[in-house]
Design brief:
The chain has 264 residues and is an alpha/beta fold. It has one domain: NAD(P)-binding Rossmann-like Domain (Rossmann fold), CATH 3.40.50. Helix content is 45%, strand content 16%. The strands form two sheets. The chain has a seven-stranded parallel beta sheet with strand order 3-2-1-4-5-6-9, sandwiched between helices. The longest helix has 29 residues. The protein is globular and about 45 Å long. The two termini are 34 Å apart.
Length: 264
């Protein structure tokens, strides 16, 4: 991994770092020299942290659930306690759904909203005080192209939650700017179909789940001008840009990284 060091003096917290997009984020930020605090539910977060260390960057792995406020507070406190700051937050933790709304139990539907929307809120709420003390920071949320289109295919909870993430991102950007913290920017990335993403969880037929690649080829490829899925590394490179000084004039935006699937 060739480190350019553009984020050498920055500390980044990444939720969902054990998954495909989260792992790509961790490696991309490590390549720029950032020190990382990585959070996720399972053992995979330690594997990501070890990959970061082998790449020559510093990383701490923290087992935690975005569904628990205390876990998000612990994640933020780990960053400040171990590395002395919390400059960047990337909220990658997410959960998909499958099944028609009329067939879903309320607990399953609300669990998706709790993880995707309230989990994003909990992570931001825990990280924001450290940024406000330093009067600088970058908050990068992971929404979805389906947070703009709604989409079809048994994903009502997912689409609703990602619409909420975009709304939270925009409202918080405006709130921070109007209350004296314009140096803290807040932006969302809206991926389309990502090869390392949760496609297998986002769609289902009556016969059961369908692999993400098959769904894309069967239903979405013709709607995507690039005619291909997005790679997790492409999402991560956009996040790195949003964390750099060069992006200081960008806030409150929901940037599509979807091959042209959504053009708005």
């Amino acid at each position: 991994m060739d480190a350019t060091g553009r984020l050498r003096d920055r500390v980044a917290v990444i939720t969902g770092a054990g998954g495909g997009i989260g792992r790509a984020m961790a490696l991309a930020f490590a390549a720029e020299g950032a020190r990382l605090v990585l959070g996720d539910l399972g053992d995979s977060v330690e594997a990501t942290a070890e990959a970061v260390r082998q790449a020559g960057a510093r990383a701490a792995a923290v087992r935690g659930d975005v569904g628990r406020t205390a876990d998000m507070v612990a994640l933020a406190e780990r960053a400040v306690g171990e590395f002395g700051a919390l400059d960047i937050l990337v909220t990658c933790a997410g959960l998909g759904d499958s099944g028609l709304l009329v067939e879903q139990e309320e607990a399953a539907w609300t669990r998706v909203v709790d993880v995707n929307l309230l989990g994003t809120y909990r992570a931001i709420r825990a990280a924001l005080p450290a940024m406000m003390r330093r009067r600088s920071g970058r908050i990068i949320t992971i929404a979805s192209a389906f947070g703009k289109t709604g989409g079809s295919g048994f994903i009502t909870a997912y689409a609703a939650s990602k619409h909420g993430v975009i709304g939270l991102t925009r409202a918080l950007a405006a709130e921070l700017g109007s209350h004296g913290y314009p140096e803290i920017t807040v932006n969302a990335i809206c991926p389309g179909y990502v090869r390392a993403g949760m496609g297998v969880k986002l769609q289902a037929t009556k016969a059961g789940p369908m692999p993400g690649e098959e769904i894309f080829e069967r239903y979405y490829k013709r709607l995507v001008p690039l005619r291909r899925m997005i790679e997790a590394e492409e999402i991560a490179r956009v996040a790195v840009f949003l964390a750099l000084p060069e992006s200081a004039a960008i806030t409150g935006q929901a940037l599509n990284v979807d091959g042209g699937f959504v053009m708005s």
